[in-house]
User: Which sequence fits this backbone?
């Protein structure tokens, strides 16, 4: 993610940064589904995501879109928040037609709100959630998702399935707030660096 944003802000003509950065979102979606499975308080999880979505919006708009407020783009925390809401609904629904309707509703909301990755991001979260017990099918479908972008560089994101496939199911260090804070903080640092040098 940092490599991707560094390339976007400081080295926009060096595409290698962006290629590497394509791995970030699939990994975030995978970790989101794991976090959903293991959280003890889903509402607190959603409040935390929503709070950092709001906190991150100004740095996101300033750094990546050059304006204080940009209603055309919302940061990735909003996508992740919608994804958790979708998983919560899917968890409570039993009938497949209802699950399909819920996924479509959240996809529509993501596009209406213009969140990062839009409806496609919601599809990937749904794939990881619905196939959570089927490792190889989940990684194959996750890899295929990266090629639904009509010539976009997102295809490089298929490489994210390698570390995802190697996940051993064990919890790592407790650093969740570090990563939440890191997102808006690194965007703000990139904005200041860009302002200073450019």
Assistant:
């Amino acid at each position: 993610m940092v490599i991707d944003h560094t390339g976007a802000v400081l080295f926009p003509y060096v595409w290698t940064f962006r290629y590497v950065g394509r791995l970030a979102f699939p990994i975030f979606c995978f970790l989101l589904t794991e976090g959903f499975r293991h959280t003890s308080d889903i509402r607190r999880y959603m409040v935390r995501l929503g709070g950092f979505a709001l906190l991150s919006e100004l740095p996101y708009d300033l750094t990546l879109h050059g304006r204080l407020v940009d209603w055309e783009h919302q940061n990735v925390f909003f996508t992740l928040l919608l994804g958790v809401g979708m998983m919560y609904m899917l968890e409570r629904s039993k009938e497949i037609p209802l699950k399909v309707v819920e996924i479509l509703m959240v996809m529509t909301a993501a596009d209406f709100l213009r969140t990062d990755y839009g409806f496609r991001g919601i599809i990937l979260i749904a794939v990881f959630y619905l196939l959570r017990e089927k490792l190889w099918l989940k990684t194959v479908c996750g890899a295929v998702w990266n090629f639904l972008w009509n010539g976009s560089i997102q295809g490089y994101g298929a490489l994210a399935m390698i570390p995802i496939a190697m996940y051993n199911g064990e919890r790592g260090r407790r650093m969740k707030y570090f990563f939440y804070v890191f997102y808006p903080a690194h965007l703000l640092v990139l904005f200041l660096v860009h302002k200073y040098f450019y």
In short: The CA atoms of residues 4 and 108 lie 26 Å apart.
